Amino acid sequence: MDGLDTLRDEVLACAAHKLTVTAIPHVDLYRVSQPMSLPPEIYPPFVSLILQGEKRLQVGDRSMRYSAGEMFTASFDLPATGEITQASEASPYLAVRLTLDFAAVSDLLYQMPATALPATKNGIAINCVDDALADAWLRMVRLLAKPDEIRVMAPLVEREILYRLLQGPQGDVLRQAAAVNGHFSKIRKAVVWMRTHYAATFRIEEAAAIAGMSLSAFHRGFRASTGLSPLQYQKHLRLYEARKELALRPGNVAAVAAEVGYESLTQFTREYARLFGEPPARSIRKLRLTDAGPLQASGDHG
């Protein structure tokens, strides 16, 4: 049995249905026993390793599939929809996810030999896991059986995982996002600001200034990195937040629309239906009938 098979069995033994928030900071496990659509969510920057099954994510106009033995790396907050395409009771979808700490990534970069920043413009990467990285993931998951060791050992293993990610093919994405003068680092500053101010009216020039880029370079770089224009990204943030709130407060469509920045309820309803395929009222009824529960901004699936 190789390291990936052993890791799969360890996660199978530890993961409950759907999301398991573990005692290890930044680490979550996922187990899904049937194909299912995933609710629209805003994922934090993360790396997710599938151990069994297959998943499809839709980010803007990009549709991406990844399966057992592959890692998905996102260097920015990711408004996404998708589906688990391969899963069953006998062979459930299994994944482990690490939410990225860019302060830790930056600290590692300072201690590694200086290299020229890569030219990559895509803020997302899908790559196969290698043996050394699979072994580090395995040691991280095995800490769940040794709770007294988590506080000391988990940060060390996380640091190794980040180091091996930086050394691997997805390292270009992480370097650009963590380096002070990196392309994604500049875009990420604007993304963080937009996450905080999504309900406010803003000019693209304002976001470009926060990124420290010219307007044309910012617009090109933002779309290349996220798959969305800055205004589309803001719209997605507003509508995803609205959907989450409507699951909690189904009788307040007008109030929720105003809270996320819409002055016109008609415009909100139109754009909501365009993104989610149905108007808010119908969407709310479906949300109330499913067992998904309130949507979580942290991302409910790995």
Automatic annotation (TrEMBL):
Residue ranges occupied by any HTH araC/xylS-type domain in the UniProt entry: 188-286
SUPFAM superfamilies (alphabetical): Homeodomain-like (SSF46689)
InterPro entries in the cross-refs: Homeodomain-like_sf (IPR009057), HTH_AraC (IPR018060), HTH_AraC-typ_CS (IPR018062), Tscrpt_reg_HTH_AraC_N (IPR009594)
Pfam families in the cross-refs: AraC_N, HTH_18
Superkingdom of the source species: Bacteria
Gene Ontology molecular function, alphabetical: DNA binding
Keywords: DNA-binding, Transcription, Transcription regulation
Protein name per UniProt: AraC-like DNA-binding protein
